[in-house]
Amino acid sequence: MTLLRMAFRNLFRQKRRNIFLGAAIALGTAFLIIANSFAHGISHTLVNRIISSVSGHVIVNFAHLGKPMSQMLRGGKHWQDSIAQIPGVIKVEENIGILGRLVGNGKSDNAALMGLNLQGPLSPADSAHLNDDFHFVAGHWSDLRDSTVENPFIMSAARAKYINAQVGDILRVRAQDVHGTFVAARLTLVGIFEPSNLFMESVTLLNIKDIVQLINLDPEDSPSLNIVLENPQKEARLVADRIWDMLQSPWVFIEGAWQHQGQSLGTAFYSGYLSDSSSQELLQKRLVGDFDWSRNQVLISAPWAQEHKLAPGDTLFLEYALRFPQADSTEKLRLVVGGLFKPDSSLPPNLILARDDYFYPQLYGALPQIHPLNSVEISPDFAQILSPEWQITPRVSTTEDMTKVQKDISQGKYQGTAVSVNTMYEGASAIMQLESALQLITFQAVILIFFIILIGVINTLRMTIRERTREIGTMRAIGMQSNQVRKIFLLESALLSFLAAIAGVILAMISMFALSQLTIQAAGNPLGMLLINNHLVFVPTLLSITLFVILIVFITVLTSWFPARKAAQLTPATALRHYD
Amino acid sequence: MNIVAIEALTKDYSLDSTTVHALRGVDLNIKSGELLSVMGPSGSGKTTLLNIIGCVDTPTSGKVEVAGTDIGSLKDKELTDLRLRKIGFIFQTFNLIPVLNTLENVEFPLLLMKEQSATDIRRKAKDLLHAVGLGDHLHHRPAELSGGQRQRVAIARALVTEPALVLADEPTANLDSATGASILDLMVQMNQSLGTTFLFSTHDPDVQKYAQRIVKIHDGLIQDD
Fold this sequence. Notes:
The complex is a heterodimer.
Chain A: H1 2-11, H2 15-54, E1 58-63, E2 72-73, H3 77-84, E3 89-95, E4 97-103, E5 108-116, H4 124-133, E6 134-139, E7 152-156, H5 157-162, E8 170-176, E9 182-195, E10 203-207, H6 208-214, E11 222-229, H7 232-246, E12 254-260, E13 263-273, H8 277-284, E14 287-288, E15 298-301, H9 302-308, E16 315-321, E17 330-341, E18 351-355, H10 356-365, H11 380-385, E19 391-392, H12 399-410, E20 418-423, H13 424-427, H14 429-467, H15 469-478, H16 482-517, E21 531-532, E22 535-536, H17 542-569, H18 572-577
Parallel strand pairs in A: 5-10, 7-9, 13-18, 15-17, 19-20
Antiparallel strand pairs in A: 1-11, 1-20, 2-11, 3-11, 4-5, 4-8, 6-9, 7-10, 8-9, 12-13, 12-16, 14-17, 15-18, 16-17, 21-22
Helix pairs in contact in A: 1-16, 2-14, 2-16, 2-17, 14-15, 14-17, 16-17
Chain B: E1 2-15, E2 18-31, E3 35-39, H1 46-53, E4 61-66, E5 69-70, H2 76-86, E6 87-90, H3 102-113, H4 118-131, H5 147-159, E7 165-169, H6 177-194, E8 197-202, E9 213-218, E10 221-224
């Protein structure tokens, strides 16, 4: 206690020197906290406001028939409920976004049409969120619910001005539906808004139910999904991994009645084989006789061919029951035999296989009922050959890997529906890199502070120790141990840096408050995405501030250690002989 | 009983390239309860002798026993402890700790000892300050006191641990003669009332009359005892 009291009082002996050093530490601390809170603010803005509203924390993307623009999984609707059950998931939103051409009054423009989920009553938080995101110049987002208007939509003031459209105008849109067919529709402009962030400027928003109709999505199909999490930073990857595990595809065996030349062949199974070279090589070894890989002909199992006396060139008819019966409850297919193969014991002996690019369009055109065989274990050889119902892409952890997967999809590597599960960290890593860049500034602030402390503290302590050498001698003569002398100097530094750091925290708080009051007009400037409603956002956290204060005190004490030890090692006689 | 026993003590200093022989073979015994004065001109080795007896400096050769302990074999920590418990110091320039007030300066050695309660320490320090005539200046900082008052505080600080030996290096050199005389009176009074051994150095012949025993030192050797 006495040492602490002495250390505290000593601070006031060289007031000017300590005030200068303290001010430097306080300024450094303030800079550190402001930089860190700004970086936090950016990630807060990006994670909680933009990413979660535009793409979700976890993104499940479907590329129907391997086409990146055709984002749907046939018969995948039920997965939305299963994903919503995963702990930590707040909501699962359908992500329907298509590119189309919007024709206005004398001008047309490419438009990203996105669905806004307005089904059922909105929570007050969601409404507030929408009000925050859009400042309406004319109309309102709630007008999207107006069922008396044909396909109501809203757009930003800048886009509306560009195509000369006003509220009430009816515009035509041409876009591709989920099946890749071009469709046209009439849209009614019901709202014009000033976007609160850059991302909202370019989107054209429709009620999700209208866009579902526009793109001809069947009720049992699922568009790509945006999943919003409670705690994205902690859980995004875990939840993504779980969804990925959940979405491992079953096999698909279409069981149906087969006919040849009007004769029934009884029931047999129809499936696909992957067309990549390694699968073909494996299958080649199982062929009986020749087979022309390039033709759209099927392979039939040799025992079944033998039983029914079938040979290459024969035409077969298959009829099977549908998973989602509509007007027709069965589907009929015509297939031409191209060759024979030997299945192994893990497969049914009556199996017909078609190449995946031939098989998948038939499969998705009319989904068959789910057969128990779909979930049996298949020998490793055939597991590499057979087509699953959809094709899940590998989980990736870097943007590079994700880009590689996307490239594979766009280059046509997947013939079935390619299913990818990514988190925003992989997906939006360019944006996330901005946060890392800002964290780098924080790191540089740490280095800067370290040097301020290093130079300031060492100089100050050297002067102080020289001035107090006789005093050190006196205290040592009276009976103070050398480690107590060291302690008194370390305590002095710790106190000075602690008080300065606290002053820095207060300074940072005041500065951040003042900076966040400024209104910044950044329309059209990419830096505008760092703003929310034209204001800078700072998110200081108690944890990081506490850590910074501890870090600064720690650095100071560490820096003081050597001068303090030097003071402690002075022999009392030397110290007492010292004259200024 | 000897509180200090010195045999053939020498002390050399290196000063730039030359060696200064500050003490050149000193033999000296000091009995418990003595009031002894070491006299000699400047540079005669008085301060060096006091520093070695006070365990703040180490001998070059010879044997020094203080309060029955041979200080030659002690490590820094043990020497510091010996100073704290057995020796009190009074300096020519008072050497009070400027950030502590009168009372805290006197309490300081006892707080370092960590043996008594805060209340006991405070009471003891107050009693001593009353005894040296500073009962009204308990909360003054050293800078607010006169030279004589500061030296009284230093005396109280030296005595508060009830040491076996108090060393005073030219305690009156920075004081006017009247104040110096009162300080010496106080030391004599304390020596008589508490029985504490006092050893003080001086170059002022007028001071001799206060001492029971006078040791004259010249060029690092004792000339007259």
